[in-house]
């Protein structure tokens, strides 16, 4: 019964995602026919194209065709690239995954220790500093921080490479295989290319990591404060265990279970929320692809990219929920 309820929830959520993207595509005042043919196309050609695209059908029939195509991976053809949208997404999405993954690693590697420190040193100066760092991460617009960091670290200090994913020198000498450039360069042992890729990705990934850090550190502090109040912590101290073992070996170990969900949600948020970062840093990922498509009224690409990001978000949420249930026996008991 639980499995059936779970499947119904997944299917309903996905159909809701398709419905939202479909009706947004119909509400936006952009005619997909004119986007393909241009404003000066003859009326007869416009009508034939509209009929060929199924836009003359009733709305419910259009939605059925839309769902059928989406389930089969057919998101139409991009006006901007003239390629099937799914092929374009397969080409650009690894760049977004690479950027979001490194950002999440940075956020978790720094956010968890900072959150633990803030909880252990509650109301101290260290706690206030960590909370201010998190508050800035929540409050400062990412586009402003991205532009400021470009001026400082690229234009002034020259510590990082210019916007983009790889230097033009290596565009033709480096042959990616999987689409994940860092892995491909390391596998092929092209260390000069790997260093160049690192200099390009480190700044945008660090910015995303900072915003991830703000969320992860805040939630880690909250979870740790809750764990440090539990009776097993009092018992551990009564037994004479060291504070280091109590904090890192007991409290954080129990707090790690809900932290998995937090990190997963943070990762999903970076996948869907890196549009501005990719645009500012000219990062050729899905966010930049959607932005360019929207500017060129390429609604097939916009909606296709939105569905993919939404589907990944749903999948990550499902995975984190299953992992949470696996690691925490109390949730299985319910």
Provide a brief overview of the structure.
It contains 15 helices and no strands. The chain is mainly alpha-helical. The longest helix is centred in the middle third of the chain and has 38 residues, at 191-228.
Nearest-angstrom radius of gyration?
24 Å
Overall domain count: 2
Q: What is the helix content?
A: over 70%
Q: How many distinct beta strands? A: 0
Fill in the CATH topology of the largest domain. Answer: MetI-like fold
CATH architecture of the largest domain: Orthogonal Bundle
CATH class of the largest domain: Mainly Alpha
Specify the biggest β-sheet: none
CATH superfamily placement of the largest domain: MetI-like
Distance between the termini: 13 Å
**Weakly predicted, low-confidence segments:** none
- The run of helices and strands is HHHHHHHHHHHHHHH
Quaternary state of this entry equals single chain
Protein structure class:
mainly alpha
Q: Per the principal axes of the C-alpha atoms, what is the gross shape?
A: globular
What would the average pLDDT be, to the nearest integer? 85
């Amino acid at each position: 019964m639980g499995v059936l309820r779970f499947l119904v929830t997944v299917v309903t959520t996905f159909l809701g995602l398709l419905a939202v993207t479909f009706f947004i595509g119909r509400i936006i005042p952009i005619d997909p026919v004119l986007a393909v043919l241009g404003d000066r196309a003859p009326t007869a050609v416009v009508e034939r194209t509209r009929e060929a695209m199924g836009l003359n059908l009733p709305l419910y029939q259009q939605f059925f065709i839309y769902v059928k195509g989406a389930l089969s991976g057919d998101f139409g053809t991009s006006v901007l690239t003239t390629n099937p949208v799914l092929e374009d997404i397969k080409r650009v999405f690894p760049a977004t995954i690479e950027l979001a993954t490194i950002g999440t690693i940075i956020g978790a590697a720094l956010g968890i220790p900072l959150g633990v420190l803030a909880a252990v040193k509650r109301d101290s100066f260290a706690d206030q500093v960590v909370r201010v760092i998190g508050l800035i991460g929540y409050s400062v617009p990412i586009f402003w921080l991205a532009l400021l960091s470009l001026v400082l670290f690229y234009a002034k200090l020259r510590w990082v490479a210019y916007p983009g994913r790889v230097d033009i020198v290596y565009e033709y000498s480096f042959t990616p295989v999987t689409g994940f450039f860092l892995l491909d360069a390391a596998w092929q042992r092209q260390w000069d290319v790997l260093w160049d890729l690192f200099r390009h990705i480190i700044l945008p990934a660090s910015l995303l990591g900072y915003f991830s850090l703000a969320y992860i550190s805040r939630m880690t502090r909250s979870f740790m404060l809750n764990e440090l109040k539990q009776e097993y912590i009092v018992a551990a101290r009564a037994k004479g265990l060291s504070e280091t073992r109590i904090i890192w070996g007991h409290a954080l170990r129990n707090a790690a279970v809900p932290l998995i969900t937090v990190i997963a949600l943070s990762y999903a948020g970076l996948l869907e929320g890196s549009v501005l970062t990719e645009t500012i840093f000219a990062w050729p990922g899905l966010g930049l692809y959607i932005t360019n498509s929207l500017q060129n009224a390429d609604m097939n690409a916009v909606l296709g990219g939105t569905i993919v990001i939404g589907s990944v978000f749903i999948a990550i949420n499902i995975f984190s929920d299953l992992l949470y249930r696996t690691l925490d026996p109390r949730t299985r008991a319910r």
